[in-house]
Amino acid sequence: MEFGEVLKQFLLDLQRLFRSNIVDGKITLSQILLISSVPFDGIDMTSLAQQLGVDNSTLTRLVDILVRRAWIEKSKVRHDKRITLLKLTPKGQEIQEKVEERIDLLGDTVYDSIPLEDRDEVKEILSTFHWTLSKLLLKQE
Questions:
Q1: Domains of the chain: total
Q2: C-alpha–C-alpha distance, residues 38 and 99, integer Å
Q3: CATH (domain of 59)
Q4: Is residue 8 part of a domain?
Q5: In the prediction, which pLDDT does 119 show?
Q6: What is the CB neighbour count within 10 angstroms for residue 21?
Q7: Residue 124 pLDDT more than 80?
């Protein structure tokens, strides 16, 4: 199997695991990724769109749904009214905590499924892999 095919399968399997273990009837995978990416002190729309790898119009549609659910609030930055800041509401923080708990539980389940003697090596390889992806993304910006 070519490395590109391995990457595709890795992505598909991760999405399936997230959908079956983290997504419930109230929240989609896209909404989970958005909510889990909003830091406590907030983030501007452009930075979040870049982080999620979506265009601003796609993010706007996702955010509007979460605003209607009162999970996220939008505000303008004082020094530049063109910038829209997103922050989680208390209800959104509650959802984020539940999502993070489910992600941690899934991580523990996967980690515990790895043979004990391989766990440190797999974790190190995944950390290196993530670092490599991060560097590639920085080069593209």
A1: 1
A2: 12
A3: 1.10.10.10
A4: no
A5: 96
A6: 14
A7: yes
Is 76 among the domain residues? Answer: yes
C-alpha 112/C-alpha 27 separation (Å) is 27
Percent of residues, the chain, with pLDDT higher than 90: 83
pLDDT digits (tens, 9 = 90+) for 18-36: 999 988 888 899 999 999 9
pTM over 0.90: no
- Quick check: is 9 in a domain? no
Distance CA 42, CA 124 (A): 31
What is the rounded distance in angstroms from the CA atom of residue 16 to the CA atom of residue 72?
26
Residue carrying the six token digits 């659910």:
69
Q: Which domain holds residue 94?
A: 14-140
DSSP string, the chain: --HHHHHHHHHHHHHHHHHHHT-BTTB-HHHHHHHHH--TT-EEHHHHHHHHT--HHHHHHHHHHHHHTTSEEEEEETTEEEEEEEEE-HHHHHHHHHHHHHHHHHHHHHHHHS-GGGHHHHHHHHHHHHHHHHHHHHHH-
